[in-house]
């Protein structure tokens, strides 16, 4: 209730007052909702998230969406978590020529990152040389020197949607295990 009140009332969205303004009214106002309070409310029913140990952000997000779904009591029209849900369709082509479609709903699109598609390959090679030199000296590169690969989102999506072989696929048409695409 406290979290809902904080989000909906506008009480916590008031800009911070300067010190020269009225000091009494500045004590009554707060600059937003503390992240710890938000986490405490959402994680209260989860044994792992209710601790102060490091947590996985994806697992917390899925737990949060689950809590939102439950709080709506099965009324899909009022469920804001539906905004994150999307459908994925797999097309499986058997060597017999038959095609099967598998559909599922998900909240997450797990993408592989094709590092060979990096746009800064020369910078990466130079960084690898620097890293090897520093390692031979017994040092590590500083945070300012670290170069990370830059891979376009389009390359990740192309990798996700590219055909791949499915080993040991049981074909009902062939009545045997085969390799499908």
TrEMBL record:
Domain of life: Eukaryota
TM region(s), chain numbering: none
GO biological process, one term: protein deubiquitination
Annotated source species: Punica granatum
Pfam families documented for this protein: UCH
Protein name: USP domain-containing protein
GO molecular function, one term: cysteine-type deubiquitinase activity
Span of domain USP: 1-181
């Amino acid at each position: 209730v406290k979290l809902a009140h904080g989000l909906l009332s506008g009480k916590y969205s008031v800009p911070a007052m300067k010190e020269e303004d009225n000091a009494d009214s500045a004590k009554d106002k707060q600059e937003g909702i503390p992240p710890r309070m938000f986490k405490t409310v959402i994680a209260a029913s989860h044994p792992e998230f209710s601790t102060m140990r490091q947590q996985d952000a994806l697992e917390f997000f899925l737990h949060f969406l689950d809590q939102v779904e439950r709080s709506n009591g099965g009324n899909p029209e009022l469920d804001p978590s539906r905004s994150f849900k999307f459908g994925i369709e797999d097309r499986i082509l058997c060597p017999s020529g038959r095609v099967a479609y598998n559909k599922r709903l998900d909240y997450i699109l797990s993408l592989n990152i094709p590092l060979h598609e990096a746009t800064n390959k020369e910078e990466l090679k130079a960084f690898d040389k620097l890293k090897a030199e520093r390692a031979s000296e017994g040092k590590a590169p500083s945070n300012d020197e670290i170069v990370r690969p830059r891979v376009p989102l389009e390359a990740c999506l192309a990798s996700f949607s590219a055909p791949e072989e499915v080993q040991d696929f049981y074909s009902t048409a062939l009545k045997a295990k085969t390799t499908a695409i």
